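Sequence in, structure out.
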Amino acid sequence: MEERSLRVLNANTTFFSKISTTISKLLVPTKVGINGMLISLKRNNVLKSYEVLQEKGEALVKDKKEILTKKYEDTYALYLEAIDKYIMDSVYTRVKNNNASDFEKNALSKYYEITSLKENEYIEYKHRKQKYLLELDFEGIKLNGKGKLYNRYVPFYLSKVDVLYKAILKNYSVKLSDTISAKTISKDKLYNKVFKTLEEYVDEIMPIKIEFDKDKCKDVLEEYEELDKFEVGKLDEINYMEKNMLLLGISRKLFTHSLPLVVAEQCYIELLKRTRNLIVNAKSQDKRDETYELFVKLVEDYNVKLLSTKIYWERPQERTEYKEFWDKYKAIKDERQKEILFIKEDLKRLNRSTNDYMSIIKLHKERLVSMGAMRELKNSSKTMSGRYAKKCVKC
């Protein structure tokens, strides 16, 4: 009797455990229903507040507008709380009881991924969590079809996610400009976060914007359509770099203030650095030729979309040198001559740098020799033994 009373029973097989699990499963649909009604109510409130503010905002006196703005912000906060509660009360319980859909499992996984940012990256966490909760409800609305609610919800949704994406990119911009932040997170990671966030925006938000108001997107439509070629199959390093180049070009029109010129310039310089590494590490001449094509596109993009709009230069000499380069560029019509100009200008920058760029400098010179833009002179001199030694010099 004593031995049997001391036996440890599996918690999952006890009577009380079975009862509590059954009750929990029965309660889940009720919680889903309650949370669903709560979200609908709060969503309706925030949409009403948003529509009133949009309709009357400009005509209102300052005090009245502040009251309406405060009401809108309060209803927005309550709406997000309702979605958050739905995740914790319903989705979490369904996943725990192993009766959740793949969508719910992925939703909870992503929720915890964002929550993990809270301790060390609070600003990013704050904006990404809002964006995630809005996206979650938007997906649910889309699943029910593009009816009245969808058409009513989209303007509010676009206005909010635009603000959140700008805030996320601004946070990265501050970190890239801050030498203290560089000690806690590598710049490589920050650049990758910038490119990934731009990709998210273009993939998830741009199609909705184009669907609802194509005219407002006409400035970036050409670049956006060019990105379509990267949607099929896995991207190699060259395609990945070219995609980031196009995303950065689009950002100059969509996120001018959130990703200011000085930070965008850092991103272009980073892409140039990565492209040079691809040239050096190319395993075949065909691959190297392909990478040089990307290099030409990138240098042109950097000059046309960024440097040509730059007003403030740290040193007057840089401005003078750029003006000389820009005059040469505008006079060129031939693509081959354009590549020669870009490589020569890159050689000037690399030769002035204190970093070791010997590998890419050597390849740049070989490229110019092969294009007939640089001569290879052979010098001969006698050694101590009286033999002739030859040394090739590219000039």
